[in-house]
Amino acid sequence: MPDNETITLELFRYHPETDSEPRFQSYDVPYDEDWVVLDAINWIKDYVDGSVTHRWSCRMGVCGSCGMMVNGEPKLTCAAFLKNYYPFPIKVEPLVNFPVERDLVVDMEGFMDKLQDVKPYIIRDDVNDTSGGEYRQSPAELAQYKQYSMCINCMLCYSACPVVGHEDEFLGPAALALGHRYNKDSRDQGQSERLEVMLSSEAMWGCTFVGECSVVCPKHVDPAGAIQQAKAMGAQEYFKRFVMPKGAGV
Amino acid sequence: MSAGGRPTRPSGEAFWWALFSGGGVMAAIFVPAFILVTGFLLPSADAAAAAEGAARLATIAGWWPVKLVLLGVITLSLFLCAHRIRHTLMDFGMRRHAGLLKLPCYGGALAGSVWLALVLWGI
Amino acid sequence: MSGQYHRSHSRAWFMERPAYIRFMIRELTSFFMAAYLIVLIITLAKVGAGEAAAAEWLQALSGTGWKVAHAVALAAAVWHTITFFAAVPQAMPIYIGEDRLPAPIAKIVMGYGPWLTVTAVILWGVLR
Fold this sequence. Notes:
A: 2 domains, 10 helices, B: 3 helical TM bundles of succinate and fumarate reductases, elongated
């Protein structure tokens, strides 16, 4: 392979202090088949245009910060190899369904609020009582939720989901899967507290099982499956409350 | 209210989803066979064959366990359709009227179910 | 915060990705199924009205237009069945100890098995 081969990256550019509308800027980057899209963007920032703004950290699919739209698909740019697109140009945009802060960086605030809404931590009635020792859990109990605990909050699923784009109230795939992860944890006692939020109008029921969240997930979390299970759990809880209203006494 | 300021009151969506979900199972298992029977096997251009098909259908549909199955399967399937049609209309730009859409969609399914019950009563 | 850029979706958002088109096709099966269910209730109503009325109705249903309509409804219904069973392993996982029942087996046990059984019973009941 000759050394002078290049590939074109078209980057979404938006600087709020000077731009009222985004624009695309093309850069020719040396082509290396070992390179991923993130390497190419880093090369542009280091050698051509230091004003390009993007998020990244680990370069190995663990930190979840380099998610972007690559030719319209939500991808971790550290896992999107140039060779899969070469010799055609690659269009890189910030994740859709999020407001754009600057260039390839989106505002995560709304996502963070939704994560907090599902109370993603173990809730216990007897949290101060440690006299009984640790909370034990069998491998079979662990298997119930382990898949849903692998989320790295990369938000690719939010960009793949049309309901996220249309319905502000919708908690979204990652947050709902995380809520379900704690609901399925045998050590947790916060199910009804969590379902309080998830049962509200469009928070979870907005999901129409398009299923793309699970397709784009780099960690095989399967949020779509988790949400369907959470819905079934929520429906049970709904009928239970219907039969035995809260405060009616036991 | 939660961190994101969302309401935490349970909504009736759980109820409609439960009907949708049950309808999804029933429709998946029963409806293709129903269509085969009433759309292809029983209809006939020949008057004698059509009469025989009608007699056969009357015998089968007149048996009360079959009536119960028909009532359950068709009612739930109607709610499956109502739920999907409502969400499709929301997807086509009527999301602001999500609440209002319940009336024609679920109301239609309910009306169909009542009609069906009366029809089955009369067989 | 000011200065953020908000992108919006078009009315035709479902054309944005092939998966969205497949999703829409799945959802649209419900229109055809609803139409069929109404015809089915009419058929039952004709049965209730007497065998002469039912026979006349079954004769009308043998027309080409009705056959085409039923073929479309059948395709829609079968597509609903296939897509519904595809979701079963995700929506209703079955665990045997630490192991999850493999998806193909779950689909047969909770989907295609009952479907074929019920279909066979219905066809046997009508044709015998």
